[in-house]
Amino acid sequence: MTIEKILTSAPVVPVVVIERLEDAAPLAQALYNGGLRALEITLRTPVAAEAVKIMKETVPEAYVGTGTVIDKATFEASIDAGADFMVSPGVNDELLALASQSDTPFLPGAATPSEVMRLAERGFSFLKFFPAAAAGGPAMLKSIGGPLPGVKFCPTGGISLASAPEYLALDNVVCVGGTWMLDKTLIANKDWQAIEELARQASQLNN
């Protein structure tokens, strides 16, 4: 399994925050049924790691990974949970060292040309561009693509159903990360059918 295969499985990677463990299975099923094949579960809640295990059991055909991997603790929690991939908002030497010793696909974050160059030098040709909207959006990515055409991105942060197509139209964007299909009210009301429909809209963006 490679990060390229994971990122090209669907045009959108939902960035999921699990507050209640009981939501993990039905939410994973709704997103997968809607056509989203790679799910990023952020390690921001106490139940996140356990949710990864449950989601992997619920939709074994999906790629269930972790986000907000920022240090050794979250890296090791991801490994223990059986994450299919890991995503970080940025990088430091500790994370790069851990990633170099692991077989789990790792998507490091970058927001500037210097960061992109540093990671490309370390062998990373797929990066998370974060925070996408705040860091210059499609215009910034297009500018980076000129001098650094060998690097592809999954921009995340401030992207909506309306703005996603502008990112996806860029040659150096393979997919986008988003949360718009994860409406908190729908989750609270357990309206999994509505979430599945939002996921389906997202999964068809490249069509």
Short recap of the structure:
The protein is an alpha/beta fold and 207 residues long. The chain has 10 helices and 9 strands.
Overview of the structural elements:
By secondary structure, the chain is α/β, with parallel strands linked by helices. Helices cover 41% and strands 15% of the residues. The protein has 10 helices and 9 strands. It has helices spanning 3-7, 24-33, 48-58, 72-81, 93-100, 113-121, 137-145, 164-168, 184-188, 192-203; strands spanning 12-16, 38-42, 63-67, 86-87, 106-107, 109-110, 126-129, 152-155, 176-178. The strands form 3 sheets. It has a 4-stranded parallel β-sheet with strand order 3-2-1-9. Helix 2 (24-33) runs parallel beside helix 10 and helix 3 packs parallel to helix 4. It is globular. The two termini are 25 Å apart.
Q: Count the strands?
A: 9
Question: Strand pairing plus helix content: what structural class?
Answer: alpha/beta
Indicate the radius of gyration in whole angstroms. 16 Å
What's the SSE pattern? HEHEHEHEHEEHEHEHEHH
Report how far apart the termini are. 25 Å
The percentage helix is: 40-55%
Topology at a glance:
Elements: H1 3-7, E1 12-16, H2 24-33, E2 38-42, H3 48-58, E3 63-67, H4 72-81, E4 86-87, H5 93-100, E5 106-107, E6 109-110, H6 113-121, E7 126-129, H7 137-145, E8 152-155, H8 164-168, E9 176-178, H9 184-188, H10 192-203
Parallel strand pairs: 1-2, 1-9, 2-3, 4-5, 6-7, 7-8
Helix pairs in contact: 2-3, 2-10, 3-4
